[in-house]
Amino acid sequence: MRLFAAVLPPEAAVAELREAARPLRDDRLTWTAEAGWHFTLAFMGEVHDDVLPELHARLERAAHRTASFALRLHGCGHFGDRALWAGAAGELDALRLLADRADAAARRAGVPMKQHRRYTPHLTLARSHSRRHGHGGGHGHADGHGHGTPLRPYLDALADFEGTAWQVDTLSLVRSNLPVSGVPGEQPRYETVRAWPLAG
Q: Can you give the pTM of this predicted structure?
């Protein structure tokens, strides 16, 4: 199974971002379906079934060790010319701690993870057409200014976006099913396979 650990925003937060992004949607970018709006904490790729019991146990432990915390959607950024994303504000140290713990849980369970980098909270909104498929958890240069990028108009429009805060109280393990139909523009399908409450 192709898996990642994530924080999923509540419907109210999704609705606020939907309204902010609505005037920007055009065919110059491939816009991510709302089902794909999440903060990836640790992207694991293909995980073998025999690893799952240990992975579940370690993610549950990571959740139980982490206190719930406040988060809100805030501003935007980009990875080069490849991806436009919404950012986060609030208790970011707690979000980064949860990301580190999810990454460590996967490694200790035997998932071959990529090199660990400092976590950049991002919710992928759109990609350039050359990045049509795949997962939004990739890394790149997170430049908040975007001088000279084709994404400039979108960055300007979303720069002042401020969502309403919510309490993050769940760590989710999400399965990503990649498109198989070959239909242009088909999006991955996401399925929450397990979820664990945070402490407190």
A: 0.86
